[in-house]
């Protein structure tokens, strides 16, 4: 497909006329018109139709418009990258806040070991938002929670949920039981609520947050009990082992590569990261 013709087509989409498209691309109107005819001939589809006195996009033209900008952007990025004397791979990595202290630093260290010139951008957000960004291609890769028997991504490690609380809190004297949890999309949120309801135990959800730091801070202040992965709790949290509390599930923590992003993270490199992470831990 003629990239210059595609650029003129985008100019028409943005301006709504061949005259303004010609001005935007610094061509004559007849040159733009010829480009569009060649583009239609190459695709075998009419891209424009008359609407009164105006020329507008046809159904096929609107379909092409959905892909034209990303195609042109990818072309320009590819040319710029190949022309660059110092190619620096870029990676946008997503990580839930609860693994930012336990898993993320090791992965970052390994990434720079295998990709010395890497330009790394990290986004920490809720697990739900991380998955949305991963699916849309906004992230190249992400560290995510999965079921232990799932085949999703590349398994970094497994973990188990634990209850955490203040050492001074007597949980048997708390009625209702105060709890602070991750947001509703978190497996531990669902398991904690479901388990307490099955026990017939009254509870009060004091707060929910996507931030592990916020939850641990509230737990240390005695505001409520928390439920999270043992790795996320770390060494500075008091783990409560009590048969009066419902058990929390086991999880897998995996590295997932976006199928929609043009990531420098290949399957082979992902496997190296898993191996390196296992050796480090």
Automatic annotation (TrEMBL):
Keyword DNA-binding found: yes
Residue stretches making up the HTH lysR-type domain: 1-58
One Pfam family hit: HTH_1
Annotated InterPro entries: LTTR, LysR_HTH_N, LysR_subst-bd, WH-like_DNA-bd_sf, WH_DNA-bd_sf
GO molecular function: DNA binding; DNA-binding transcription factor activity
Alphabetic keyword roster: DNA-binding, Transcription, Transcription regulation
Gene3D superfamilies xref list: Periplasmic binding protein-like II, Winged helix-like DNA-binding domain superfamily/Winged helix DNA-binding domain
Family that this chain belongs to: Belongs to the LysR transcriptional regulatory family.
Database matches in PANTHER family: HTH-TYPE TRANSCRIPTIONAL REGULATOR LRHA-RELATED, TRANSCRIPTIONAL REGULATOR
Protein name per its UniProtKB record: Transcriptional regulator, LysR family
Organism listed in the record: Shewanella woodyi (strain ATCC 51908 / MS32)
């Amino acid at each position: 497909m003629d990239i210059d013709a595609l650029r003129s087509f985008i100019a028409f989409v943005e301006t709504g006329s061949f005259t303004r498209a010609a001005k935007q691309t610094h061509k004559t109107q007849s040159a733009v018109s010829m480009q569009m005819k060649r583009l239609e001939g190459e695709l075998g589809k009419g891209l424009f139709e008359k609407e009164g006195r105006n020329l507008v996009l046809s159904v096929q033209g609107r379909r092409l418009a959905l892909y034209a900008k990303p195609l042109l952007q990818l072309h320009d990025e590819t040319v710029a990258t190949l022309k660059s004397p110092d190619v620096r791979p870029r990676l946008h990595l997503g990580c839930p806040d609860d693994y930012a202290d336990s898993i993320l630093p090791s992965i970052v260290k390994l990434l720079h070991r295998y990709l010395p010139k890497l330009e790394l951008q990290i986004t920490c957000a809720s697990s739900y938002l991380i998955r949305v960004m991963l699916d849309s291609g906004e992230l190249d890769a992400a560290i995510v929670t999965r079921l232990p028997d799932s085949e999703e991504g590349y398994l970094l490690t497994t973990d188990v949920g634990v209850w955490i609380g203040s050492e001074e809190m007597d949980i048997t004297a708390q009625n209702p039981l105060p709890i602070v949890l991750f947001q509703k999309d978190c497996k531990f949120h669902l398991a904690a609520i479901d388990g307490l309801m099955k026990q017939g135990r009254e509870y009060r959800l004091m707060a929910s947050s996507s931030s592990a730091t916020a939850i641990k801070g509230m737990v240390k202040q005695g505001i409520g009990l928390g439920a999270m992965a043992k790795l996320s709790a770390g060494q500075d949290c008091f783990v409560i082992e009590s048969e009066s509390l419902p058990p929390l599930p086991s999880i897998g923590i995996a590295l997932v590569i976006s199928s929609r992003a043009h990531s420098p993270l290949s399957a082979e490199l992902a496997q190296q990261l898993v191996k390196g992470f296992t050796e480090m831990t």
